[in-house]
Design the sequence.
């Protein structure tokens, strides 16, 4: 039983160690639920209890669900950060390529190209931004 309890507690502490401050606040209710499951082990069980394997199983299951939730939240956070970085680093004023023969474009063509590129970029970035909402 001792090894099973040690492994289960190590998983619990490892899962909590993965969290940053914001994730701790976000998952506060889930952490409390997980602690309620663990609380049975230090209130009702002793070394003579027959329910220790059941307790380890319940705790392992609850920790597994918590780890899954943490992984999902961290994956969403990484995805949001990637989208925000893409928005932050977007090139809104891309210089048009020169005309054949290396001749520069006239002002009208130059600014039309920049405006078309900017409009496409803004639309793409708007879609990326709107896609962040469901991840929250």
Sequence:
């Amino acid at each position: 039983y001792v090894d099973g309890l040690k492994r289960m507690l190590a998983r619990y502490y490892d899962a909590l160690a993965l969290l940053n401050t914001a994730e701790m606040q976000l998952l506060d209710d889930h952490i409390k639920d997980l602690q309620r499951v663990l609380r049975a082990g230090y209130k009702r069980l002793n070394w003579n209890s027959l329910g220790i394997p059941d307790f380890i199983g319940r705790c392992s299951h609850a920790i597994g669900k918590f780890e899954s939730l943490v992984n999902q939240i961290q994956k969403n956070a990484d995805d949001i950060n990637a989208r925000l970085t893409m928005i932050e680093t977007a090139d809104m004023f891309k210089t048009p390529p020169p005309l054949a023969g290396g001749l520069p474009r006239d002002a009208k063509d130059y600014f039309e190209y920049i405006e078309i590129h900017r409009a496409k970029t803004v639309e793409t970035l708007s879609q990326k931004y709107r896609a962040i909402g469901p991840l929250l």
